[in-house]
Write a structure and sequence with these properties.
This protein is mainly α. The protein is built from 16 helices and no strands.
């Protein structure tokens, strides 16, 4: 009986990650194929919580693994699993853009390419840095470690947007939330709490536009607007996480089994889908195809995911590419 419960929990998290990566790909397809995408309500709904959901899951599973190894081993593991593939795809993008600029006799901005290379796949880089901070905190002989987490966050929150600071500033609260919620059973969210969070998410959406997103984050710590937008970003992300977790748990029994199995499988390979699908969207920068059709964007999303899975399986046949591209040994 215990094994069945454990398997159900693993399936729930994989299903949740599968839904999350589906939303990520769909959001990027909207961004690449929809005119005036910054005002697209579906895209804004997705952007309110999709990356916070991923970082929340990482935080939720951080504590069981981090204390089991030395800081050195933990750092090596996270470097190969997260930052190495991020650097690889950063370098890949640098080569593509430089090649395009050389063909068009355009100027090459060296500082921009250095930043692009070391930022890489930005979410993986931010997650690596947050894990690095977590590894240092875990190595401290201090019981109230959550206080150190909060202290670190407020330092980051207060400083100007240097390299990766905005990304960490945006994601870190959800990582800490994941650590805190570890003590609760997230698959048992009460209906009343779901309703409260749904109302909160709806209220946040009333305010939310593209200026609230990570990509338009401004820094002026003495302005109320800076703090208000930070609060809305957190509340919309947290309420979205609760709502999608509730729906995944209670609606999964009525999912078509093949769809559920496919989403669960996607949840086991989110990193490969994340890094590969973005490269599959590059050709549209030249084709400039646009569509307002939800069905067409959904079809493009499914094609991108399937092509990403096929590409992943092909690249995994080569040990070195498996390591460089996806951080897998």
């Amino acid at each position: 009986m215990k094994n069945n419960t454990s398997n159900n929990r693993i399936e729930f998290w994989d299903l949740l990650k599968g839904v999350a990566i589906l939303l990520v790909v769909y959001g990027h397809c909207l961004q690449n194929f929809t005119p005036y995408w910054q005002n697209n309500n579906i895209l804004l709904l997705i952007y309110m919580f999709h990356m916070p959901l991923f970082i929340f899951i990482s935080g939720y599973f951080f504590h069981p693994s981090a204390p089991k190894m030395s800081f050195k081993n933990f750092l090596i593991k996270k470097f190969f699993h997260l930052y190495l593939p991020s650097l690889f795809w950063g370098g890949f993008n640098v080569l593509l853009i430089i090649g395009n600029k050389l063909l068009n006799n355009s100027n090459i901005d060296i500082p921009y390419f250095i930043d692009l290379f070391f930022s890489g796949a930005w979410f993986l880089t931010a997650l690596f840095i947050i894990n690095l901070i977590g590894g240092i905190i875990e190595s401290c002989n201090y019981r109230k470690k959550i206080r150190i987490w909060i202290f670190c966050y407020f330092i980051i929150y207060s400083i100007p947007p240097l390299w990766m600071i905005n990304e960490i500033k945006f994601l870190m609260p959800f990582f800490i939330t994941g650590i805190l919620i570890k003590r609760f059973e997230i698959t048992r969210i009460p209906i009343y709490f779901f309703i409260i969070m749904l109302i909160l998410f709806t209220l946040c959406f009333h305010f939310y536009d593209f200026s609230y997103s990570l990509y338009a984050m401004q820094y002026n710590i003495i302005e109320v607007d800076y703090h208000f937008k930070s609060l809305i970003r957190f509340l919309s992300g947290f309420s979205g996480i609760v709502c999608i977790s509730f729906l995944c748990h209670y609606l999964s029994p009525i999912f078509i089994q093949k769809l559920k199995s496919f989403l669960t499988y996607m949840g086991t390979i989110t990193l490969p889908i994340y890094v590969l699908h973005q490269n599959l969207l590059i050709p549209n920068r030249f084709l400039q195809y646009q569509s307002d059709s939800i069905i067409i964007i959904l079809l493009i999303t499914i094609i991108c995911i399937l092509l990403s899975i096929i590409t992943y399986k092909v690249l995994c046949k080569f040990t070195i590419l498996k390591l460089l591209c996806f951080g897998e040994k």
